[in-house]
Amino acid sequence: MKASTSPSAVVAAASEPSMLQEAWFALRQWSKLFLRNKLAALGLFLIVLWTLFAVAAPLVAPYAPDATQLEAKLQGPSGAHWFGTDQFGRDIFSRVIYAARISIWTGLIAVGISFFIGVPLGGIAAYYGGWIGNLIMRVMDIFLAFPSLILAMAIAAAMGPGLISAMMAVGIVGIPEFARLMYSQTIYLKEREFVEASRSIGVKDSAILVRHIFPNALAPLLVRITLGMGFSILTAASLSFLGLGVRPPLAEWGAMISEGREYIITGEWWLVTFPGLAIATTILGFNLFGDGLRDVLDPRLRTSRK
Amino acid sequence: MTALLQVRNLKKHYPIRQGLLNKQVGSVKSVDGLNFDIYEGETFGIVGESGCGKSTTGRSVLRLIEPTEGEVWFQGRNLMELSSKELRLLRPDMSMIFQDPYASLNPRWTVQRILEEPLQTHQSLRTSERKQHVQELMERVGLSSFQANRFPHEFSGGQRQRVGIARALALNPKFIVCDEPVSALDVSIQSQVLNLMQDLQEQSKLTYMFISHDLSVVKFLCTRVGVMYLGKMVELAPKRKLYANPLHPYTKALMSAVPVPNPKAKKERIVLTGEVPSAKNPPQGCAFHLRCPIATEHCRSVQPEWREADEEHWVACHNL
Predict the structure, then answer these.
(1) How far is A207 from chain B (nearest CA, A)?
(2) Residue A135: is its pLDDT beyond 50?
(3) Fewer beta carbons within 10 angstroms: which end of chain B, N or C?
(4) What is the pLDDT of residues B15-34, one digit of tens each?
(5) Which of B62, B105, B107 sits opposite A200 (nearest CB)?
């Protein structure tokens, strides 16, 4: 017995795939699944495209976003100005590109606020339960009772208009969604035996939440983050449209639509159409990607869809 | 023999709340007044059908769920009176092996990390020392140490249960609650795991509380056995006495249901009629009287006393 174990152990070790190979294999499986869902791939493409525009805005945009050329105001799309110019003669294409920076930043920061406040709140509420849990979740219910845009408007108005308060308002409005998702995940995970096993060892509650429950809840949270990006960008644009977000002359899609809306009647359609398309494609990208991500991460949905 | 663990009047009642004001309208008496001692070095079995409160008992004893009432004395201290911090400091002396080896290991952790967790929690070791400790643990339970970097899903059920056992052993406990540790495994694997548990008990002078619904497994492993029915213990005796001479009618019925390997052996089966009553609304008097073949009027109204019918042989029945 002793003699036969060592060679077989060597064989087992040799046929053992390396960590790198395994990771590569997992990545390939994962991307295959993902690309099979063509809409999700389109979503990813849109996200990457807009992120690239945002990062490389000075290289992509042919003009400065706030350069006025009054002699060329309200011109339709042409070779010189692909998306036309606005009432001050600013190049709309350049402004749309620069505005992507603001929108993507807004999305990231707002989702970051929602995530880093909502997830701990939901986790604590579910894990400890009792009156603390009730208090937290009832406050979340109150937040959810308001239409999200109205609530964001109220918060942004209270803090005074501006980019920062718009980001924070949108972030705060998103907290309950994350809290509720983490709450339901924690309720399910805290009864699992591996959590009980850690408790039986004497691991502290805070460590159980961080080490065991949070990593196992990450997949649905990741989906929520992606979908939350779309929601945040849209809400922030809405705030700017209503004059509660970005102040002129900064380029922002919602603000651009707001400024250009009176020209729809007189026929200068490009003022609102292009920023509108930018918003639509960005949010479409995040939503399609989020749905695809959910399918990949949730094996139960994987088989039910062809 | 000295008692390592003494349980006195242990109760776990789950409140049933209803209505807008969350008024308590009743309670599920999952565990309802248990008294027993577990001696050092023995394997104390608890048997009973599903829902009789076996697992609740095991978890209450370790205070993984808060019992409603009662005392649990472990090494001279009443666990029920300890603060959560004091309890944490006592955790290394007691641990638990779980029923489902698929659910009891964090799917995102490697075996190395799973086995390291108890060491990290209670000891300050250097990384290399921890690594070595984990390797020793794995070899003690019959796993190869080169498998340490694998994830639970890469193991078979039996191997996973060995990981669960290794985790329970990591801090050299004195007392381990085993909650149906083999009932999720194939029969062929069951005996391997049981043998392993027995070997480990001899090596490390462990005391087990072994929860099971499988009477033959209990017979193989346990020194004394308690039989539970509807949250109460109906009989408690050394294994030999219980299997040779069951006194309580419920135990008799259970014993007669154990399959015998000899097909020609004649056996009288006692088939119980009816269902187990709900623990929400247990019957008056003896909990078993609705299904008992020898119940009398007395059983319907008066709860039988928990008494020592024979040396070390405890039973709760009026009609002996």
Answers:
(1) 10
(2) yes
(3) N
(4) 888 877 778 888 888 888 89
(5) B62
Which residues constitute the domain of residue A120?
42-59+90-304
Whether residue A299 is preceded by a cis peptide bond, meaning omega within 30 degrees of 0, is no
C-alpha closest to that of A169 among A158, A177, A178, A180: A158
A23 and chain B in contact, CB less than 8 A: no
Chain A nearest-CA residue for B58? A200
Q: Residue A263 contacts by C-beta under 8 Å, 6 or more apart in sequence?
A: A74, A87, A269, A271, A272
CATH code, A271: 1.10.3720.10
Q: Which of A134, A201, A206 should one mutate to test binding to chain B, selecting the residue with the greatest count of B CBs within 10 A?
A: A201
For residue B5, the distance in angstroms to the closest alpha carbon of chain A comes to 17
- B64 in reach of chain A (CB within 8 A): yes
Contact A200 B121 (CB under 8 A): no
Q: Among B307, B302, B304, B306, which residue's Cα sits nearest to residue B318? A: B304
Mutation site for B-interface testing, chosen from A193, A204, A208 by largest number of B Cβ within 10 Å: A193
**pLDDT score, position A52:** 92
**A85 burial type by CB count under 10 A (0-12 exposed, 13-18 middle, 19+ buried):** buried
- Which chain B residues are within 8 Å of A13, Cβ to Cβ? 146
Per residue in B95-105, pLDDT (tens digit) is 999 998 888 99
Q: What's at B151, amino acid-wise? A: F
> Per-residue confidence at B57, pLDDT binned at 50, 70, 90?
very high
A298 vs A305: CA distance, rounded Å? 11
**Does residue A262 lie in a domain region?**
yes
Q: Residues 158-177, chain B: which have Cβ within 8 Å of A?
A: 164, 167, 170-171
Which residues share a beta bridge with B74? Answer: B5, B77
Nearest-CB residue to B98 (from A12, A197, A204):
A197
Give the pLDDT score at A12.
45
Establish if A14 belongs to a structural domain: no
Nearest chain B CA: its distance from A179 CA (Å): 23
* Residue A243, in any domain of the structure: yes
* pTM attached to this predicted model: 0.81
User: How many independent structural domains does chain A possess?
Assistant: 1
Please list, residue by residue across A93-131, b when 16 or more beta carbons sit within 10 angstroms of its beta carbon and e when fewer do.
bbbbbbbbbbbbebbebbbbbbbebbbbbbbbbbbeeee
Contact B44, B223 (CB under 8 A): yes
Domains annotated on chain B, with CATH: 3-18+25-222 (3.40.50.300), 249-320 (no CATH)
Burial environment of residue A159 by CB neighbours within 10 A (0 to 12, 13 to 18, 19 or more): middle
Q: What's the ipTM?
A: 0.86
Q: Tell me the average pLDDT of chain B.
A: 89
Number of other CB atoms surrounding residue A302 within 10 Å: 14
C-alpha–C-alpha distance, residues B185 and B167, integer Å: 18
A224 domain residue, yes or no: yes
